[in-house]
Structures are given as C-alpha cells and as structure tokens.
Design a protein that fits this description.
By secondary structure, the protein is mainly β. It is built from three helices and 16 strands.
Length: 270
C-alpha cells in the first residue's frame, strides 16, 4: 500500500462538541504493521497477556518494548521522525475471522484556544483513550456521524469511502507533578490527561498544559459490518451490549523528540 503524507490547515471539530474552529492540523497516513496479543502500556513485559491488537507506526512494538528500544526503529508512518507506537483492538467477523486493518490516519491538531501555544508531548508520554468514556470514540463511513457500534454498513458509497472506519479522539490537556513537569503516565493510563472544557474555556485547571490534540481513524478491510457481524477483540472484556462498545486506542510517544518538537513548532504553533 502506498503511504502518503498530507500537511493541512483545516476546519475541524473539537473532540467533545460540534463547534467548528479553524486549527492547524498535521495528517499522517500510517500503514498497518502487525497484530499481536500484546500491550506494552497495560501489560509491559507480559507477552500474550492482552487481547489482540493492531499495531501501527513503530514496527518493533511488542510486550517487551521500552522507550529506549523503540527509538529509531522502522515505522509505517512517512513523517520523518514519527516512530511513535499506536495500537487498537483487532476487529473480527462473527465467524471468528480477523478482519485486517488497512491503515491508521493520525491527526495532530492545535486546539483548543489556538491563541495558546501547543506543548510537545514529553519523551515516553503514554495514554489510552476511547471507551468507556462517551463522546470520544465511534464507528462511521467517511463523512458520516460516529455511532457507538461496529455494526455499520458502508457498502455502496463512492469509491474510496466504502471501508468501515473506527475513530478515537485522545485528550490533550496535561497535568503537572509537584516539580512542575508534565506527568507522562498514570495507573489507569488516562487520569494524567483530560479533555478540554470547551473551545472557548480551554483546558481545565487540574490539567492546564495544552498538548497536541490527537485523533486516529482506523480503516478496516470490510464494507458491511452488519453482514459480517463485526466485533472487537476487547468486547468480551467489557461485557458489551453492542458490538464494538470497547473501542479504544493507545499512544506512546517514542517519536524522535527533536523531530516532534520541530513539528509542533513549525506546523502547529506557526
């Protein structure tokens, strides 16, 4: 699959609402790398302890990965220096067949309050986003609203828009420790970050640092998930009442740090 990169200044929507704003946005198309039942954030050093994940970006990501081991490794992302790790639960059909992920589109955006500068993620920053938090995830076809189930039919749409897509929107307000440094992780891998209060009010006082606003779209090699009976590898862990109710994604900042700093400076804060 040919990998493409597009840097755009675009009109976008804030994560938790529908207020249109104009924000700088870096769009990176990352091919699928590999699938494995590993999660180096939740189960570090425990190979096979997680549900099956689809990995994107850094091709070395596995249960034994460390920040040091990830640096400088090959990546499926074409943006120079983006060796970050991205992953999400694998998708299956009702017959138990894994449905391959085609690619992940990663957006780094300047929001909220574009008048305030974006602070780059510190090295080794980690977070998980999505279910069970409402309004931060869903499935759709290109150009349609997110819905909270993987049972969606995208067949019959225009060429290039027929694949089922999963979306996860990450929080981007960071928390400081007693020494005034950005906290890079927390016990649940969520509490050290928060979503903006609103586009106008910005980040909450508890999490005052404006980090890059990350959104990921994962396209799977299926058009009609109603017919296929699609469900996620993690659904059984959440006792889902709707297929796909456990949708989430992980991000690990193993970028080449100078490249990340330069991207934020030249693309998001310019």
């Amino acid at each position: 699959m040919r990998r493409t990169l597009l840097i755009v200044i675009s009109v976008a929507l804030i994560a938790l609402g529908a207020t249109p704003v104009r924000a700088a946005s870096v769009k990176i198309e990352c091919g699928a790398s590999h699938a494995a039942p590993d999660d180096p954030i939740v189960f570090p050093g425990q190979a096979g302890a997680a549900h099956l994940h689809e990995f994107f970006g850094n091709t070395s990501t596995n249960a034994s990965s460390t920040y040091a081991s990830m640096l400088g490794k090959p990546t499926t992302c074409p943006f120079a220096g983006d060796t970050a790790g991205y992953w999400a639960p694998a998708l299956f059909s009702s017959s138990g067949q894994r449905i391959a992920a085609r690619r992940m589109t990663v957006y780094y955006r300047d929001r909220p309050q574009e008048s305030r500068p974006v602070t780059p993620f510190p090295p080794d920053f980690r977070m998980i986003a999505g279910a069970p938090q409402a309004g931060t995830w869903g499935f759709n076809c290109d150009g349609t609203a997110l819905i909270a189930t993987s049972l969606i039919d995208c067949s019959g749409r225009s060429s290039g828009h027929t694949f089922v897509r999963a979306t996860v929107i990450f929080p981007n307000c960071g928390k400081l420790d007693a020494a005034g440094k950005i906290i890079v992780d927390s016990a649940d891998h969520r509490s050290h970050v928060a979503y903006p209060v609103s586009e106008r009010m910005g980040c909450p006082t508890s999490h005052p640092i404006k980090l890059p606003h990350v959104k990921v779209n994962i396209r799977f090699d299926v058009s009609n998930c109603i017919k296929a009976g699609c469900y996620l590898a993690s659904d059984h862990e959440r006792s889902c009442t709707k297929n796909g109710c456990s949708l989430h994604a992980d991000f690990w900042n193993t970028w080449n740090q100078p490249a990340l700093i330069n991207m934020v400076k030249s693309k998001l804060n310019s």
